[in-house]
Write a structure and sequence with these properties.
By secondary structure, the chain is an alpha/beta fold. It is built from 9 helices and 23 strands. Strands 1, 2, 5, 6, 7, 8 and 19 form a 7-stranded mixed beta sheet that branches. It has a 4-stranded parallel beta sheet with strand order 12-11-10-16. It has a 3-stranded antiparallel beta sheet with strand order 13-14-15, with no helix packed on it. The protein binds flavin-adenine dinucleotide.
Length: 373
């Protein structure tokens, strides 16, 4: 099958790109959007599911609802990519395109971390969040550990959010004084580009008696204990793990990765292959692995492709800006506005936690849902 634009992966990046191309070019867009999953789930919805704030059914956004001029959605598992020929093989057939965009996200790799099991004691998959939603209400005494296996990982604030929301739940159930909470994070601070955000989170941990172990990784999980990469051990009766990440195997097998991810020009998102782009968690862009950055990079690719498909020249220029909402607990959400590419080093500004930002975060999700589906 021949398309003008073939988008691999219907996550934050792929959905945003397909939507803009459809809005701009209508029926002429000639987009094929491929994803092996049945539905999209926002990353932050996994926290809502894990803490019983949303049902699993309510956060699933089925791809069957996509109905956009010029966009054909295919539910197919991609088995091979030939970037030099812009040729993609799926379980259902072969696709070729004038322009190929790889937006396949990051997969989880639990093999290097004995005892971490997908769908059991991690909350980065939907299955894991659902499973922990059943387990957490039975945790009434002992040691809880939110443990990150390695960096980079999606949404750097998410482990801090898990600690603060777990604290709230234990308080609500009247068992907090019988439980300890520890955060094991490979980063030196919770949100490295924004010292003010990191300070606010560390202060929130201190106020709630949450132990913060920065610069360390979860190395193994066993019965009643976990091991860290510095050789130390911690008691652990409830583990909320963040598994190691890596690009999906199909991308590595295509020879597109270096150091685990697809290298791209940070401004144009072009790979070393002609008319082949990559954005989001699958790529090394110089920004964190988060939906807002995948979406921003997709917008830049859209600018390039709209021009190319109209017969004009000129690349979009990705700005590396993004705003991330952070659950601070107590019914409050903060926001960090970060800038990764304009200066010599990343910077970030904190909008302090408030009830108003809870509504803004809800609108962030609702507006994407309305635009993409
Ligand atoms: C707990 C948690 C909280 C988060 N909170 C936030 C937040 O508040 N804000 C934020 O911006 N980000 C957040 N994130 C991060 C965000 O979810 C990801 O960074 C974002 O989804 C990345 O977008 P993407 O388009 O690169 O990839 P994805 O959204 O992961 O999409 C990739 C798609 O590719 C498909 N795919 C992969 N391999 C294949 C294959 N072989 N064949 C077919 N299809 C395939 C997958 O099914 C998937 O749909 C959070 C993540 C987690 C886990």
């Amino acid at each position: 099958m021949q398309s003008r634009v073939l988008i691999l992966g219907a996550g934050f990046g792929g959905l945003e790109l397909a939507t803009i191309l459809s809005d701009e070019l209508g029926a002429d867009a000639g987009v094929t959007l491929i994803d092996g999953a049945e539905e999209f789930v926002f990353g932050f919805s996994k926290l809502d599911v894990m803490f019983g704030r949303a049902s699993p059914e309510s956060v699933r956004l089925p791809y069957a609802a996509i109905d956009k001029p010029g966009v054909s959605f295919r539910r197919e598992r991609i088995t091979a990519i030939d970037p030099g020929r812009r040729r993609v093989t799926t379980e259902a057939g072969v696709h070729e395109a004038e322009h190929l965009v790889v937006a396949l996200g990051a997969d989880y790799d639990v093999e290097p971390t004995p005892g971490v099991v997908l769908g059991e004691n991690e909350y980065y998959s939907v299955a894991g969040a659902e499973r922990l939603a059943d387990v957490i209400p039975g945790f009434e005494r002992g040691h809880a550990v939110i443990g990150v296996c390695d960096a980079p990982f999606k949404c750097p604030p998410a482990p801090s959010e898990a600690c603060l929301l777990l604290h709230d739940q234990l308080v609500e159930r009247g068992v907090r004084d019988r439980c300890e909470i520890t955060l094991v994070l490979p980063l030196p601070t919770p949100v490295p580009p924004s010292p003010a955000t990191s300070d606010a989170l560390v202060e929130a941990f201190a106020e709630r008696d949450i132990r913060f172990l920065p610069g360390r990784r979860l190395a193994a999980a066993g019965d009643g204990a976990i091991a860290l990469d510095d050789g130390s051990e911690l008691p652990c009766d409830l583990l909320l793990a963040v598994p190691r990440h890596r690009a999906p195997d199909v991308v590595g097998d295509a020879g597109m990765t270096e150091d685990g991810y697809v290298p791209v020009d940070s401004r144009t998102l072009r790979t070393r292959y002609e008319n082949v782009y990559a954005c989001g968690d699958v790529a090394t862009v110089g920004v964190p692995k988060a939906g807002v950055f995948a979406e921003g990079a997709a917008r830049s690719i859209a600018t390039t492709l709209v021009a190319a498909l109209r017969g004009a020249a000129g690349d979009g220029c990705y700005d590396g800006l993004g705003s991330c909402y952070i659950e601070f607990g107590g019914g409050r959400v903060g926001r960090v506005d970060v800038d990764f590419l304009s200066g010599p080093k990343p910077t970030g500004t904190l909008q302090p936690p408030s009830a108003g930002l809870v509504a803004e975060k809800a609108e962030f999700g609702a507006s994407r849902r309305a635009r993409w589906f």
